[in-house]
């Protein structure tokens, strides 16, 4: 197999041709389970020729393709307005981490919908967030629903807790988001709710679930009657995704495994050995923005791969890169706050197209800040 071809730029005549090469190489990194695709890919690139560094690079290029160029950022709000649903008196850090991460990835505005008691606390962490103290109100669903037309994606679950009243409200919010066709990232106790009532997201293709190992087992048990732990992780994640009607599932772990029911992709970007609480919130908040961008860009920009699969890969790679950079500076003292400080440089490093390779092409991966 020849060396990986020059990276396409988003704008430019060669993009389509180079894009085809990218998908061919990317596909070699995917574990494929559908006979028609297998046939196509075996013709293009036999699986055994795949090299993992090249594969990661090809997948990262698809993420670059969906990052909106600076020129498109003239109107405030175009880069995305994200809502985080979560935050109760016990947990105020998680919704803050998710919402600030969304802003630092490039969202124009981040809203948090938390309980009344938690709102002032979350606001006090940052003047940059808009915090609505509505989640435990009797009119919570309507209060959030009226904001939905102004939002592009929701992240549901950070710091939610398991209070029955809150979960019932979140169920209503999820239903309202589905009715509007909004992308929804579900994490933490949002996943606990989904494990209780899988029908809530069954077949909703704009949902992305981001379980850790325990949450994954709980979901698999609820949906398939089998915790699916041990054995082939790619196959397990793919099975859960299919059983949920091809909802995108990201299983976080030593490597992150992502599936949309058709393909399973592994993100092995080097991270750190540190496992501080809050990393998952960085991932879910980033993913809210990337999911919006990827759906806006559409499958042409992701060379036929599912936009949400590409977005999820991007969020995993970014989170791991942040962990790595923060760890290089702080070692075992690394916390999520240190990782969040690395979002800007990590994002540039991974996703901003540099002028170097093709010569004279202006950087187009800038963010709207
Ligand atoms: C999910 O994707 C697989 C692979 O493409 C396909 O065979 C299956 O029919 C899809 N399921 C649904 C519910 O769309």
Automatic annotation (TrEMBL):
* One GO BP annotation of this record: nicotinamide nucleotide metabolic process
Question: Which reaction is recorded as catalysed by this protein?
Answer: (6S)-NADPHX + ATP = ADP + phosphate + NADPH + H(+); (6S)-NADHX + ATP = ADP + phosphate + NADH + H(+)
Q: Name one GO cellular component term.
A: mitochondrion
Which Gene3D superfamilies does the UniProt record give?
3.40.1190.20
Chain ranges of the YjeF C-terminal domain? 59-350
Subcellular location per the Swiss-Prot or TrEMBL entry: Mitochondrion
Chief subcellular location equals mitochondrion
Q: What cofactor does this one take?
A: Mg(2+)
Tell me which residues bind (6S)-NADPHX: 159, 212-218, 281
GO terms, molecular function: ATP binding; ATP-dependent NAD(P)H-hydrate dehydratase activity
Summary of the function given for this chain in its UniProt record = Catalyzes the dehydration of the S-form of NAD(P)HX at the expense of ATP, which is converted to ADP. Together with NAD(P)HX epimerase, which catalyzes the epimerization of the S- and R-forms, the enzyme allows the repair of both epimers of NAD(P)HX, a damaged form of NAD(P)H that is a result of enzymatic or heat-dependent hydration.
Q: PANTHER family per the record?
A: ATP-DEPENDENT (S)-NAD(P)H-HYDRATE DEHYDRATASE (PTHR12592:SF0), ATP-DEPENDENT (S)-NAD(P)H-HYDRATE DEHYDRATASE FAMILY MEMBER (PTHR12592)
Q: Which HAMAP family match?
A: NADHX_dehydratase
In the record, the note on similarity to other proteins reads: Belongs to the NnrD/CARKD family.
Q: What is this protein called?
A: ATP-dependent (S)-NAD(P)H-hydrate dehydratase
Gene transcribed to yield this protein: NAXD
